[in-house]
Task: inverse folding
């Protein structure tokens, strides 16, 4: 069966520090991968998605970047965090096209001080 | 941009009662999906209903879709305290060049009181 791992679960970082969040998927090949941010009490905002190694699409201009160095690995990064980067970050995968159901990791709670 | 809008934003019911959540959207869709999110956790896919379907069941869940009104509802029957969570609808629309876009609503926060 497929599983998705996302870490760390919580992270407290000072403003201006770098960021690296990692997500890995097991049990499937060539998944679509997604990074979302969820503000408190709000819906999900799609940040990045990837349909293959090295293929990254950005949905919103921002201080963050994403990379997919391996088929089942998706990394969210920042060189310098801003206060506005605080939030709950979720990684997800789906099979094939975007219209398939997405399967989510347990998220990373990021607090910027 | 937000496609699905859930209603109500929050719902509090007694255990054993039925819970109904609604979702309205604006553009034509390929399918509509419902997800559940426990506090501080990731989303879990519950059910997918295609644009040519009108009703779908899964255990205590019943989803309806009315494409003429651009709306869907999620009914949870005989609710339990463990059903307490936020519920999101997500619409999937064709975005051109063979691609689809999945867009989440803001969710309904359901509280089931024991």
Result:
């Amino acid at each position: 069966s497929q599983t998705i791992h996302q870490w760390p679960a919580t992270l407290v970082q000072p403003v201006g520090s770098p960021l690296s969040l990692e997500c890995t998927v097991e049990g499937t090949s060539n998944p679509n991968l997604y990074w979302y941010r969820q503000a408190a009490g709000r819906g999900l905002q799609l940040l990045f998605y990837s349909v293959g190694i090295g293929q990254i699409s950005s949905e919103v201009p921002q201080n963050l970047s994403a990379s997919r160095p391996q088929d089942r690995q998706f990394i969210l990064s920042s060189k310098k965090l801003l206060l506005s980067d605080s939030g709950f970050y979720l990684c997800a995968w789906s099979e094939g096209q975007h219209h398939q159901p997405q399967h989510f990791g347990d998220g990373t709670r990021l607090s910027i001080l | 941009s937000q496609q699905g809008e859930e209603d109500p934003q929050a719902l509090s019911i007694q255990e054993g009662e039925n819970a109904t959540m609604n979702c309205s959207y604006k553009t034509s869709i390929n399918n509509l999906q419902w997800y559940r999110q426990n506090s501080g956790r990731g989303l879990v896919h519950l059910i997918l209903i295609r644009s040519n379907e009108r009703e779908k069941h899964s255990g205590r869940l019943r989803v309806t879709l009315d494409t003429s009104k651009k709306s869907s509802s999620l009914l949870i029957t005989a609710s339990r305290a463990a059903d307490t969570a936020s519920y999101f609808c997500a619409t999937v629309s064709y975005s051109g060049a063979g691609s689809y876009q999945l867009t989440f609503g803001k969710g309904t926060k359901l509280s089931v009181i024991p």
